[in-house]
Amino acid sequence: MARQLFTRFWRSLTRSANPNPPPPPSHPSPPDVPERENNPGPPSNPSPPSKPGPQETQQPRDDTGHNAPPDIGAYSLDPPNAEDNDEAPFNFSVARSPGNISVGQSALHKDIYGVWGTLLLLLERGIFTGPTDPTFSEYRRRIIQAGRAGLVGPYPKTDEGSIALKQIRDNIAARKGRQLKYRYLLALAGWASFGILSGFLLAVLVPSPHDAVASYGWVLIGSMVGAWMSIAATRRQISFDDMPNYLDRRIEPIIRLLFVALLSASLSILVHLGVIDIAFGSVNLKDFSQKDSIAGLLGLVCGLGEKAVTVRVIDRFREVLGSGGS
Hints:
Elements: H1 2-17, E1 75-78, E2 91-94, H2 103-124, H3 134-151, H4 158-205, H5 211-232, H6 251-273, E3 279-280, E4 283-284, H7 292-304, H8 306-325
């Protein structure tokens, strides 16, 4: 007890003698170390790598993780500025080994020349006024642009080029298809009028004892009318692939109508002889030699259904020849 009192007294004397004692020397404080438990948990997950910014691009990688070579267009445009000259020829030539050309680029290259060939055929048949026709120049420029986008340069957009080419095809058919069909129908009507006139002369000028022969004239008239109606009855808008079928207005209509005339004559003979029996309700076409109206109906059937009648006649001939040969 006496020691404690003496210690307090001594401290009070020391403070009174030196009221501002120097501060103790400063030492760097040790870093705060989190206390670990006896069984620390797994380390925290590292932060994920930062994503590329808006200005950065990632190059495609192959299966091994290395940078893959760029998808280079397999073709080159000759001349490079083909769009600027409407009358200059152009060509998408192969720029590398044919074995390295993708299926998409090969198909697009083939389709481009198919569309361009049809366009040149339309130009040759007078659908366009000339190579400098604004409409023709527009289609030519769009075809080249579609090929440039899908076939030329690094990272070609083949799918976009194919879509653009399909739009060109549909646009050509929409703008020129109906006009092309009407011109063909007009030419077909002109040639069919000669067949109708020939049938009328055959029906009128043949003497009355030969009524069966005169009936073939009415069959011919009906077949000419039916052949024209079979084309006119189809939809007015034709597809791009069907457009070449309507370009020939000189030879093709004559061949078509001549085929229908011979087909109707052959069917009339088979019906007259009883080889083929055709009836519409209560009307038997075998009586065409007795009534002009039935003869005209028989010809109309041949003209409207030329394909079906052709198959029917050929099959019937095969049945007759096969049974006779056995």
